[in-house]
Each structure stands twice: as structure tokens, then as C-alpha cells.
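Recap slide: Purine nucleoside phosphorylase, sequence and predicted structure.
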Amino acid sequence: MYEKIQETASWLKERMTTSPKTAIILGTGLGQLASEITDAYSFSYNDIPNFPVSTVEGHAGRLIFGKLGGKDIMAMEGRFHYYEGYSMKEVTFPQRVMHELGIETLFVSNAAGGMNPEFQIGDLMVITDHINFFPEHPLRGKNFPTGPRFPDMHEAYNKGLIELANSIAKEKDIRLVHGVYMGVSGPTFETPAEYRAFYRLGADAVGMSTVPEVIVACHSGIKVFGMSIITDLGLEGTAVEVSHEEVQIAANKAQPLMTEIMREMIRRS
């Protein structure tokens, strides 16, 4: 696998005309952030050697390079999910490639179901920590040389970046909430009992991505900032039906605010 990662990184380096230190993963319904990238050039996942291909509606499936907030960046428009049938090594393949390309900071975004009774649909939740509820761990198997066998995870989400997001949101009068994100395999949305259980375990929101990517980024020494758009609510005693289409609609409504915060964070960091 490590040879494939290096092969992919070499292929990209030969074609890159920029030198990004920052990467962004654009989640469900958040792909329009790509339109904010200037001087952009991109590669389809289909054309990149060894790259998986996204199969989820709403995920375009390309790697974009360009400028955002005046900084060179790279962005994944479409991520890979465990529920698609990929192994965790495949799900986190792009983060391994990012490390080889010299990425130092990773911004991750996702759509999530909120379980905290103080949350509202459309809220932006800064991820302060996570609970890994996936059945397979992305670091299982032979250890990659990018980090230790047993990496420390006490600060998976960089506190300095969280403080920066808080400051920017206050300046721009944007409501932010904070919470713990639980990563589950999906692809079913949660039952009422699962929402109750996850909330009692300490999670404020739940989704089907992000956690494996963050674990591998941390293992590779990459700083992480994470943000969820709360697209539905699973509050105790309230039965709520949800569909993928509704999640995308809610995410699309909230994404201009997330775009504004992330653009400014990248400019200042």
C-alpha cells in the first residue's frame, strides 16, 4: 500500500503547479465551496493512479488545486466511505497521499445528525473531539512510517484552529455550536434508540465519515479542524424521518456560512 501511495503522490507532483500546505475535504452538500477556489485546476479521481472512486450522489469525485483565502490549497470534492464497500486503508488513502504532498493542515467538513437538544437544523458544529464507532480501525495492520504504532489522540482537533474559528464567527456574528462527533459505518440513518444511546455515550452529532480521515491525518502529523452542518435532529422523544435529499438541502442552505469561516481561517492561518 505504501508503494501505491508514493506512486500516486509522484504522479500528482509531476502535474502540480502549486505547493499547497492546506487541504480541505468537502462533504455532503458542501461541494459548492469548490466554486470559491480561484486559479483552479483539477484531476478526476478516475484519472489518478490507485485512487478510489466516489459513488455517492452529491460527491463530484475530483481533486482540486488552486487558491482560497489567498493561500495554495488542495480540496477533495467527494470523499470515500466505509459503507461503499471500501476498506479503511482505501477510505483514508487520500490522507496518506496528502502527507506525501506536504500537507500540514486539514479542514474536514460533513453533514451530521444532531442529538444535542440545544442544536438546530442548519447549525454549524465545530468538532471538538470524536468517538470512533466504526467496526474497522484505519491504523489496523502494519504501521506506516508516518507515525508511531500507538499515536496519541488527546488533541485530534487542533485547539488553536478551534479558537480561530470562534474568533472569526464572533466577528461575523455567525452562530457556532461545539460538540463531539460520533463516526458510524452507515449507510442506514440512526434509529431513535441509536440516537439516544449515542447521545448518552457523549456524542452531540453522528455521521458516516470524517473519523477515519482524522485518525490517519493525526498519525501523519497533520493538524485538523473539523466542522459539521447539523442537517437533521434525532432528539429523545421526537421521531424524525430523514432522507439523503433532505440532508443535502439543509447542507446547501448552511454552506455559505461555513464557506465564509473556512475561507477566513485559511487566510489567517
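The mean pLDDT is 91.
The first helix runs from residue 2 to 15.
(End of recap.)
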